[in-house]
Amino acid sequence: MESDKTKAVGTSTAEATKTAVKKSTAGSRTTTSQNGMTGNSSGNRDYSQEATKEGALYKFFLDGLKDMYFAEKHILEALPKMKEAATTEDLQDAFEDHHLVTQKQVSRLEKVFKSIGESPEAKKCDAIIGIVKEGENIIKETEEGTMTRDAALIIAAQKVEHYEIASYGGLVALAETLQLDRAADLLHQTLEEEEETDLDLTDIAESSINFRAADEEDDEEEDEDDDMD
Ligand SMILES: [Fe+2]
């Protein structure tokens, strides 16, 4: 069972995404007309593949895939550095596990490209570069071996997860709308993994690291008081 606290911290975006996906799924259920053309149960628009690939929405979807292909590879490079910088074994293990998951997500994205007849291609994503940079700054700005560093690293990692949750949530919804069913299924698997990682990070933070980081502050204050005596 998730605590209310956990939900408040980690799932607001995830819940919104699920709702958006549900809505999109409901709105794009396919029907096949007598002439064999696919259409949408909520209207008569034709979303057949040929028509789709010419459209601006498909191009936007494809761009989003390229963005995430770049982002996942960038995250793959960052995770070992975050693992090395982490103080606790719990957080080191979490970063290592997520490295394995991210490797699978890169391969899964390649399957998504293939499922729509496109070659995998990365497009520079400034957002993820910025978020990862923030994590690197945290390593520079916090003291090695402290709980404060772990508490801050978890928040940095969750910023990455929330960016991914928002991006994959949108891509799933677009894939559903464009009736790219295989792509939607694959992207949805990744979305669920990102949501799970986000919740795991919240658990690690709230079960001990945040409290131990707060104790660290108290210890420092006590040391300062002792010095003044
Ligand atoms: Fe990822």
Describe this structure in words.
Helix content is 79%, strand content 3%. With 229 residues, the protein is mainly alpha-helical. It has a single domain (9-217), classed as Ferritin. A two-stranded antiparallel sheet has the order 1-2. A hairpin with a 5-residue loop joins strand 1 and strand 2. It binds fe (ii) ion. Fe (ii) ion binds next to helix 4 and helix 5.
Task: Indicate the topology.
Layout: H1 4-10, H2 12-27, E1 30-32, E2 38-40, H3 49-54, H4 56-85, H5 89-115, H6 126-141, H7 147-177, H8 181-228
Antiparallel strand pairs: 1-2
Helix pairs in contact: 1-8, 2-7, 4-5, 4-6, 4-7, 5-8, 6-7, 7-8
Bound molecules: fe (ii) ion.
The site of fe (ii) ion has 6 residues, from helix 4 and helix 5.
Outline of the structure:
Helices cover 79% and strands 3% of the residues. It has eight helices and two strands.
Total count of domains:
1
- Strand tally, please? 2
Bound molecules: fe (ii) ion
Under the CATH scheme, the architecture is Up-down Bundle
CATH topology: Ferritin
CATH superfamily: Ferritin, core subunit, four-helix bundle
Strand content: under 5%
Radius of gyration: 21 Å
Please provide the ordered H/E string of secondary-structure elements: HHEEHHHHHH
Percent helix: over 70%
- Extract low-pLDDT stretches: 1-44
Largest sheet: 2 strands, antiparallel
CATH class: Mainly Alpha
